[in-house]
Every structure is written in structure tokens, then in C-alpha cells.
Amino acid sequence: MEEDKKSTAVQPEEAPKPKPRRRKAASPQSAADTPPAPTDSAELPAADGQTTKKPAASPKKPRAKKNTKTTKTAKSKTPKAAKTAKKAPADETPEHKAPAQDSPVPAAPELAEPKSESKPEPPETPAREDAAAPTVPDVPSTPELPEPAEKAEPAGTEPEPTADAPAADDTPAAEAPPEAAAADTAVTDTPEQTGDVPAEDAAEPSGLVFSDDLANDKALAAEAARMANISRTAQLSIAQIMAGLEEDPAPSAGPAPAPEAPQHDSAAADEDDEPQDTIPQALGRGVFGMFKWLLLVVLFVLIIAGGGVAWLYRSATPDMLPEVKVTFDGQELAPTAYKWHVPVVGSFFRRTYAETLNSSPVVLEDAISDASPDIIVTPSDYSTQLTITDADKETVYEGSVTGFRSYLFAENGTFDAKLVVTASDSAAEDRSSVTGTETWQFRFTVGIKPSVTLCTPTVQQGSVAAVRVGSTMSRTEPTLTGPLESTGFVRAANGWICYLPIPWNAETGNTELTVTADGYTETLTLSVRAASYSYKDYSAKSQLMSPYIGADDAPDAVRRLLTNDGGEIQWATGGFVQPFLDSFDTPLLYGMTEYVGRSYSERSTNYGYGGRTSTNVVIKPKKSKDSMIVPASGHVLLAEDLGGSYGYTVVIDHGAGLRSIFYGLTALDVEAGDDVKQGQLLGTSGRTVVAELRIGTVPINPLLVWRGQCDGLKYY
Predict the structure, then answer these.
(1) What pLDDT does residue 432 have?
(2) Strands (DSSP E) along 553-642, which ranges?
(3) Does 58 have pLDDT greater than 50?
(4) Residue 260, pLDDT score
């Protein structure tokens, strides 16, 4: 049968050249009786369709020179050479190694090294048909392989199974026929063909020549070529895997199992198999490395900064806290709490000192005696907030310390105050200064003692004394007690005032007066001196002045008006003037006593009984029916004709209990209820007019008042 022509694709790299192996001839008996030993090599199909054993790969050795002709050994040299089993390599299957024969085996001649590196095409191997010999499977032509790489394959490494031959584990070993065994044992190992050796030279066996027919010779040549092809294919596969190539060698005839994963024998092959990084992976690895470096730098900086901050934090001691001093009405206050922030790293990081020194308000010992006490904060560049509440927890003041300077307490009592001094970054010029707050809570008593003044320490009889009391916190009217009669205190410009009329016969000397205001009591001493009065002696009663109206002779209509309390002071503007525009005579003065029938001695000593003393003034105008004017502004209480000796009577209230009374008018120009001004026309006088001036019910000297000689009425 004609043999198919096949070619195998080769790589430019040359396959390694194995060292030639020798085979020893075995006796037919031993070869036949001994079962085939299992080896790691694959089995090939024999000429009769059975499989024959594949020779195991031998370690790579330098290639020996090949002779151009094969040495033939005589058939009769050894009878046991007909059936010889192949000797397995010692390093692959030492437990199943066939026993060595004693018969000598001629050594294979050395092969000459080809001198040319050219790679001629291997010629086709002709096929011969032989009826007597078993059919030999077609063997593809041996391809030319390039020189292998310089790396030497380590000994004992089995070649990778290829498509040319099935794996040793998959195909069981079969017992060869006697003819095949004889042909197998009669041939020695031949060197592997390389790309520079012709096919016919490679197919020629180097060993014994059998005397059978040429079919056995052909089978041996085909088997040797197939073994060389399998060895080269395995070596090429290993070289491709090590080089990182993914190309598969061209398949050869016969079924081929799936290739097994290549096993790497060196660290260099592992490094070659690692895939190269892509650009994003390389960038990612670089960024990650830079990030780790930056992280270490940041960590180092944080450690250094943390140590510095810790040192600065320990340096921020309480000695750096500000000292704020507060005084209230001259009394220094102690703080009750504070919370200060001392800068450590500028305004970003501060150390806080906070403490509550006293949870309850501090009670001041001395009472506040001024309606507008002073509160001073040192230094003055801090912002302040002051809140004051009374005993009913109602806020009476809330604002700054500066605004409190114009505040006046309206009443006495107990008050609670809270002062907060604040130092902020917005108010401070230096942003790294200490900021925070300090608090003062205190309780104080406002006991403002009103001022009490005796305006006229010394007065004469028939005059007026005045007592002034300053503004009171309770807004209640002060009181005055003593031997002198008074109408009480009335509102004045700067507080209160009380007018004390001094009777014409008041006891001279010092008089004690007690004034009580806002719970405070003060005693005053008033000195009363005697006035100089005149007297008249008559021999008959008809000579007495008429009309005469004594202190107790006032009509009921007038007496009822004298009991009323005084109102607002009206003479503050303009004072008093005499009620006549022209001059007049005063036949009876205030305090003058009229006697009738006294003896000479009594008159000389001004002693006696039976006389009457005038408490008013009898005026005789220069001309009859002269016009009269209002001496001081006031309110008309009475203006009518009372008849008898009283005639037309007018009562004017000037305020503070001071009233003017005029008897004996012939005509009236005012009516009751009118408000009159100083100098306004009052009416027309008669032949005589009785003029009287009273504070309350006590008559005083009108002439002193009209002429401005009464000092007490100058205070209002």
C-alpha cells in the first residue's frame, strides 16, 4: 500500500538532540517468558494492529557523529538476539527493569556531526508491500526541526504527550508477537534525527540486521522515525510553553488526548508566564505607592504637631486669666463664677478654665444710701450686662453698666443683681487673646435716707420756720412732730417741705422737732427768739381799736376753711406784696396789746391784766374806698358779705396751708373759686380793713410776709 505523504509544521527553534541508546539482545526464552514491564512511555501500534511500547525519553546528551552506513551483525553470532525486550531507562522504571543479559552487544558507531546548518526537505519514505509481513501503519515524513534553546531539560522529566501518540496511562501495554519482539530486540538505539540529517539516513537502524524479509527492516525504520517525531514534538511543546507561546504544534496521525497542563521547572519560567501590567494597573500601583508615602509624611507631621500642641497646652496656665475688678457703691464684689478660654494655637484651639465659686448671691453688708449708686468695672473695655430684680422677682433694670448710671431707685428694699462681663474675639483687637465670661451675683438693700434740712434754724415770734426733706423712696409723705403746729409736708421741687408758723406768744428758746421719712427718723432743734411788740394804754374802752377781730373771733365760715389741708404752693412765682398800691397806716399792728385802766407802774413795766393782743393788722388807707390788689397768687375760697363787723370777706388759699383773709371790704371784684394772680384787683376797701395771714389756724405777722422779711416762706 502506498504511504501517504504528510508533513509536520516546525518551529524555527531546533529540538534538542538526544544521546544514542544501546540495546542488549535478550534470549527468546527470556523475552517470551518475561511479561512486558510497565513504563512511563507511550505504546505505538505494531504491524499486526497491536500496540508496541514507546521508548522512554532519555536525558539530553551531546549528539554523536553518525556514520553513513549501518553496521550489520551476523545472525549467527547470538541465537538469543531474535527476541529481545527493550531495556527501560533506569531513572524511569527501576522496579520493573529487565535483567541484563550476559551476551555482549556491539557498540553503535558514532555518527558524524553535520557540517552544514541547512535544512533540506526530508525525502518521502517509500512503502513496500509484503504479503507475508504484517501491515505497518503509515509513518509521516520526519520534519526538519530547528536547534533547541540553550536551556537543558533536567533529567528524568517526561515529555508532554502530543497528538502523535496516546498517553501511557490511557493505552494498556500489549504483548508483542514473536516476530515483532525479535525485530525489536535485534535493533539498537538510534540517534534522533535533526533537521540537518536526511530522512533515509535517520530511518536506517544502527544495530543488528535481521535475515528475515525486508518488512521487518521497514517496520523498524518506521518505528524509529515515529519515536524521533514524538520526542521532537514533546520537546517543542515544552519549549513553546516556556516561551509563553500559545500555538499548538501540527497534529500527527493517530488519536491524540487532551494535553496536560505544563509543569514549570524553574523560577525563570514562572516569571516569563506572569502577564505584563496594563497602563491603568501600573498607574494604580504608582498612585497607591505615592498614597502610602504621603500617609507616612502626614503621620510624621501629625506626631510632631501633636507634641507641639501638647507643650503649648501645658503652657496655657491659669496665670494667663484676666483680672476683672468690680465695685458697687464703693464696695468691692467677689465673682461667683467664671469661664475663660486661653488660646493654645491661635483662635483655633483653646484651653478652658471654668469654675463656680459660689452658687448663691453674695450679700453686701452696707445698705445703699444713694438712689443712683455707682458700679465700676475695671478694665472698662469689656462688654457688660446688668440685671436687677426686686423682692417680687420683677426686673427693675436690665442693660449695661453705662446705662445704669442714670437709673434712680424708686423705693427702698432688697434687690438681687447679676453682672456678666464678657470678653469676645469681636471686641478684642488681638484674636489670640483670652476670651470668656465672668459672673458676679450679689444681693443688696437700698436704704436711701432722705435728706432732712431745717431751713431756718432761728426764727422770731410771729414768723415761719421751714423744714425740707429730700426725695423719699417710698413716695410717702414724711411726718413732723413737736410743740409747734403745722399743716404737714407738701410736695416741693426737690422733695418735701413743711412750714411751721411761730405764734406771737411762742415760747422762746430751743424747740425739738422730729422728722420721720422712709423709716428714718431725725431730730431737729429750732431756736425761737422773742419779737419786739408794742402796747397801748387807754383810760376808757371806747378808745379801743374798732373793728377788732381776735384769733378766736373768726366767723364760722372762715374757720371751716382753715381746717383744710394746704395745696400746691402758689407764691413760688413773685412772692408776696402789700395789698394796697398807695401807702397806708397801721393803727393796730400784729402782736400789739391794748390796755385799759393800767396804773403808771404797770405801764412802765408793761405788766398788767385786761389787755388784748392783736393777731392781725388793721389798715387805714390814705383815702377811703381805695382799691385793693391780690398780694400773691392763689385760689379764692370765699368772697361774700358776712355782715356785721366782718363786712365783705375774702379768703385766698396760697397753698401749703397759707391763707390770706381780708375783712371790711365794701365791694368785691373776685368770686369764690377764682384763681387769682399777684397784683390782680381784689375789691374796694372801707374806712379800715383788717388783714390777716394764717398757716393752718395759726396767725402770723402779715407785714413780715408782705415786706419779704419772713425767711421761712422763701423756701418752696
Answers:
(1) 58
(2) 584-588, 593-596, 612-613, 617-621, 627-629, 634-641
(3) no
(4) 53
Q: pLDDT higher for 58 or 505?
A: 505
Tally of CA atoms within 13 A in the half-sphere of 194 that contains its CB? 28
CB 495 within 8 A of CB 451: yes
Q: 485 burial class (0-12, 13-18, 19+ CB within 10 angstroms)?
A: middle
Return the amino acid letter for 464: V
| H helical segments located in 274-395 | 279-315
Q: Is-contact 56 92, C-beta < 8 A? A: yes
Torsion angle defined by CA atoms of residues 188, 194, 198 and 203, in that order, rounded to the nearest 10 degrees: 30
In whole angstroms, what separates CA 12 from the centre of its chain? Answer: 76
What pTM value is reported for the model?
0.51
Cα of 392 vs its chain's centroid, Å: 39
Residue 353: beta bridge partners? 340
Terminal C-alpha separation, the chain: 165
- Residues 219, 415: Cα–Cα separation, whole Å: 134
Q: pLDDT-based confidence at 388, cuts 50/70/90?
A: very high
Could you write out the DSSP letters of every residue in 430-486?
STTS-EEEEEEEEEEEE-----EEES-SEEETTSEEEEEE---SS-PPPEEESSS--
Q: How distant is the alpha carbon of residue 2 from its chain centre?
A: 100
* Grid cell locating 642: 358776712
Please give the helix or strand (H or E) that residue 397 lies within, else none.
Answer: strand 395-399
Describe the strand order of the beta sheet including 612-613 as a list of residue ranges.
Answer: 535-538, 593-596, 612-613
Residue 176: burial class (beta carbons within 10 Å; 0-12, 13-18, 19+)? buried
pLDDT in tens, 318-337: 888 889 999 999 999 999 99
Report yes or no: 460 and 416 within 8 Å, Cβ to Cβ.
Answer: no
232-248, pLDDT tens digit by residue?
888 887 877 777 645 44
What is the DSSP track for 23-92?
A: -----HHHHHHSPPPP-SSPEEE-TTS-EEEPPPPPPB-PPPPB-SSPPP--TTS-GGGSS-PPPPPTTT
pLDDT of residue 72: 38
Q: How confident is the model at residue 275 (pLDDT cuts 50, 70, 90)?
A: low
- For the beta carbon of residue 341, count every other beta carbon within 10 angstroms: 21
- Residue positions counted in the chain: 716
Provide DSSP, 508-571: PEEEEEEEEETTEEEEEEEEEE-----EEEESSGGGS-SS---TT---HHHHHHHTSPP-S--T
